[in-house]
């Protein structure tokens, strides 16, 4: 299958991390975390180029060895824990256009903290995105808890999270809700650069199973991902 969708896949991987030190290079089943996202992107026929946006020479060198591009070192102001994904993407696209003379119609954002997302997930998400003629797409999974079941604690007493909600709903009566899992974001170059947005008015969704939606934020998440990988061989 040879489909090139004129798409730049951007994998943001700064060296700093509050939850897990040097998280993007932590080993998961013997491979650095970032390698999973690089491999998934390289295997997708919808991706024209895979680039890693990082402030780390170590991560840049490893990424090149794994088959990705790392043509720049991310500026320090875009490498803090307060840096926004949209600014990181705009920097990457602007660099490719102004410094390399390369232009892409679509951008695929792949967070390296979603190592269980597969090339098949990327392909299916892209098919939905293109078929719906969307200007953006976000991946989701079934929400682990319905807002009806959530409570707030006030002076030692539990109160409903949603004011005025109907009491005593059965699970079968609750509408299925979905939570963003952070694994896949697709958007048009026009939405990013001209609209200065990552989520457009025509925003499609791709539903992923929860066992491929693990987001690595703390040590427990690494253990969970290790377990799932072991179960899946």
TrEMBL record:
GO molecular-function terms, A-Z: N-acylneuraminate cytidylyltransferase activity
Taxonomy, superkingdom: Bacteria
InterPro entries: CMP-NeuNAc_synthase, Cytidylyl_trans, Nucleotide-diphossugar_trans
Keywords from the UniProt entry: Cell projection, Cilium, Flagellum
CDD domains, alphabetized: CMP-NeuAc_Synthase
Entry keyword Methyltransferase: no
Protein name: Flagellar modification protein B
């Amino acid at each position: 299958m040879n489909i090139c969708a004129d798409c730049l896949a951007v994998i943001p991987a700064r060296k700093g991390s509050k939850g897990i030190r040097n998280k993007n290079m932590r080993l998961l089943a013997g491979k650095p975390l970032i390698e999973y996202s690089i491999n998934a992107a390289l295997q997708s026929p919808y991706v024209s180029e895979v680039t890693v946006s990082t402030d780390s020479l170590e991560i840049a060198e490893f990424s090149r060895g794994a088959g990705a591009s790392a043509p720049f070192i991310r500026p320090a102001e875009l490498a803090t824990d307060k840096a926004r994904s949209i600014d990181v993407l705009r920097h990457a696209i602007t660099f490719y256009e102004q410094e390399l003379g390369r232009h892409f119609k679509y951008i695929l954002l792949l967070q390296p903290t979603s190592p269980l997302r597969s090339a098949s997930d990327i392909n299916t998400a892209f098919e939905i995105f293109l078929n719906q003629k969307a200007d953006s797409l976000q991946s989701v999974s079934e929400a682990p808890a319905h807002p009806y079941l959530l409570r707030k604690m006030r002076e030692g007493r539990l109160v409903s999270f949603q004011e005025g909600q109907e009491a005593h709903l059965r699970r079968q009566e609750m509408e299925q809700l979905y939570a963003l899992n952070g694994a896949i974001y697709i958007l048009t170059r026009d939405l990013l650069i001209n609209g200065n947005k990552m989520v457009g008015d025509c925003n499609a969704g791709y539903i992923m199973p929860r066992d491929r939606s693990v987001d690595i934020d703390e040590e427990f998440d690494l253990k969970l991902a290790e377990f799932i990988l072991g179960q899946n061989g």
